[in-house]
């Protein structure tokens, strides 16, 4: 089996991280799941998740300010689109994203 087939067949585990009420609209919170620091965002009712670490100097994105779908790193102001992970300051920089599932009042991540 080649690497691409293995990646396609990789089973993603679903990890419950919080309830909807734990993260208000326009807010974010950081969780550790499977040893990974992940920032979860409620961007106007759209739930998103990215790696928590800013690519510039390692700041915590989950501690940043969320405006619309843009999170601003609290250290030096680098900005990322939480829906895609794309850095707004450097077109070649992108943080990893995770799929978010909301079922009932539970927020879960596919890792």
* Average pLDDT figure: 93
Number of β-strand runs? 9
> Roughly what fraction of the amino acids lie in strands?
35-45%
**Parts with pLDDT < 50 across at least 5 consecutive residues:** none
The number of distinct structural domains comes to: 1
**Ends apart, CA distance between termini:** 22 Å
Rounded to the nearest angstrom, the radius of gyration is 14 Å
Biggest pleated-sheet summary: 6 strands, antiparallel
Give me the strand/helix succession. HEEEEEEEEE
Number of DSSP helical runs? 1
What is the CATH superfamily?
Rieske [2Fe-2S] iron-sulphur domain
Structural class: mainly beta
Level of helix content?
under 10%
Report the CATH topology name.
Rieske Iron-sulfur Protein
Query: Strands of the biggest beta sheet: in what spatial order?
Result: 1-9-8-4-3-2
The gross shape turns out to be globular
Top CATH class: Mainly Beta
CATH architecture: 3-layer Sandwich
């Amino acid at each position: 089996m080649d690497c691409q087939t293995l990646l396609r067949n990789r089973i993603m585990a679903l990890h419950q991280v919080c309830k909807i009420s734990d993260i208000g609209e326009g807010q974010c919170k950081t969780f550790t799941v499977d040893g990974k620091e992940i920032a979860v965002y409620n961007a106007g009712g759209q739930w998103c998740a990215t790696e928590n670490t800013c690519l510039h100097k390692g700041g915590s994105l989950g501690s940043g300010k969320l405006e619309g779908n843009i999170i601003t790193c609290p250290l030096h102001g680098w900005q990322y689109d939480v829906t895609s992970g794309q850095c707004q300051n450097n077109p070649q920089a992108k943080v990893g994203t995770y799929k978010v599932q909301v079922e009932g009042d539970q927020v879960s991540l596919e890792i």
